[in-house]
Amino acid sequence: MLSLLHLIESHLREALDKACLNEFSSECSLGVSLDSDLIAASKPEFGDFQSNIALVLAKHLKRNPREIALSVAKVLEEDLRFLAICIPPEVAGPGFINLTLRQSCIENEVKRILGDSRLGVLSIKAEENQKDYGPIVVDFSSPNIAKEMHVGHLRSTIIGDSLARIFEFRGFQVIRLNHVGDWGTQFGMLINHLKQVAPKALDSADAIELGDLVVFYRQAKKRFDDDELFRSESRQEVLNLQSGEPLSLRAWSLLCSQSRREFQKIYDRLDIKITERGESFYNPYLKQVVDELQASGLLVLDQGAKCIFLENMFGKDGKPLPIIVQKSDGGYNYSTTDLAAIRYRFKPKPIGDGAFRILYVTDMGQSSHFEGVFQIARLANWIPERCLIQHVPFGLVQGEDGKKLKTRSGETIRLRDLLDEAVDRAEIDLRSRLADEGRAESKSFIKNVARTIGFAALKYADLSQNRATSYQFSFDRMLSLQGNTAPYLLYSLVRISGIARKGGELEQVTDNLTFALPQELSLARQLLKFDEVIAFIEEELLPNRLCSYLFELSQIFNRFYDQVPVLKAQPELRNSRLALCRLTADTLKVGLGLLGIPTLERM
RNA sequence: GGGGCUGUAGCUCAGCUGGAUAGAGCGACGGUUUCCUAAACCGUAGGCCGUGGGUUCGAGUCCCGCCAGCCCCGCCA
Fold it and tell me: ipTM, 2 decimals?
């Protein structure tokens, strides 16, 4: 309905122009935006849209807001183009202008998107004057090599994937990057440990199993913490690695490929597509980064380290805080890598990605780090004009005690255990429900439904929360069949499938539509809002808005389903209702798909 | 010490960027099934939007102060 909104907006602006013609020049000189201030009506009683422009203008024009509203309304009432879309506007309260779409207009809009695979969402390619967009880089997930993925990676992975899907749906080229921690200080100790514990692994051509990498990591860490000699050897190892010493490189790639296999299992289960391009990728560019910073006069040598001091960055002691790009031992650190990544991603192809927007989906704790790094990149002139770089932060996953989610013994929860538990719980629920209803289903049906519901619940619980805040993790809540949960949404879709199975030919609906009942109209109205939601998310990067949209859609549909017969409706009503069912199903499928959630026919 | 985030119903959270009587869900209480999956629907109760100022026609939303909780702050990412 976005195009309709824009159309009404232009009529409104014109009307405003006419109604306030005399005052216009003085008004303009006040610098007030002539935005018609058209927004969705705050309540259904107020129609579809409302404009509060009269209230805004009242002061500047020194006129009564109600009077302005009435005169604007009068102009609109005489505008035939406007009247083709809306019924005559109403002025309410102190000067709100309420606009209500004609029923025929709603019917036409539904016709327009019925059977459209994009559901009315414009592709970026169809938009004018914005054809030179480069790709969008979404940097997400990013676990560390030799460590296991845990809850902390859940949000980044799920939110990043969903944002990527939404941009792809809009027609952007998206580069999904897994900026894995495959470089840096911790590899010193890992390689050192590997060389000492399993030297044979480095000689043989085939990679050997390292056993549990997590255990391996812990052993190395323990030695690093306890053993002074081991520590200094490890530091040397880092430098060996960074200078490309073959044996160190071999040990390194052994560790990486081992981890990669483990990560991939998780991504496969969650249906996440992502390209690994770890920190090591940028190693060849680190020196250039430092050189360029040096050349642009940004670097300061402080206690042997090459640093940049930024405004508004202070340490604990209140002194200016440096960002170190080259340590006193000559090594580089994460800021350097992040800078190299920014530089590379914005550089045109073939020596870069030619990105026009970069998103970093990482936890809130890294806000100040990114703020600093972005500032440096800007100073160094690595961010082209018109291009966007944004940190997309998210809050913690907390346990039901309100603290960071941990196991009972206080350890980090492994992601794969979390996935297993979600599916197990979903299966237990499902089996007891089948037993209650006396249904017999095949084992494969049960496995498939449990897996779909389990993962859906997990993803949805995460995405439906405003990402900026921390959220309380609860299997019981996310798997609940009522409320704003994945199972509730999936169930709505199952109901529509039921209609299709029982003879509702959803694919064969004609576009001869008439809506009469309020339940039909409110469902139609909700369906028409899909494109606005997508546009909002593209701007604000808040997938939870898609969740609440889909939840509201399900609620409205369930009300419709409960109160309005579809299959048993009279022939002239049946087609329109089937059309609503079909569009609801399509919207739910596409919407959930954008959240990375597949749907079910039966559950 | 500096910076950031959060504070809305008993609980978990929305709140579309300043608009009309602050919304959901869960939980509580009450109702609905010869009918497309009742995993649903309908209704009732429940609020000093942390707090004190300010900005203006109008503030949960913007600004300042305060209180509480969490996070980050020099060679880890």
Answer: 0.95
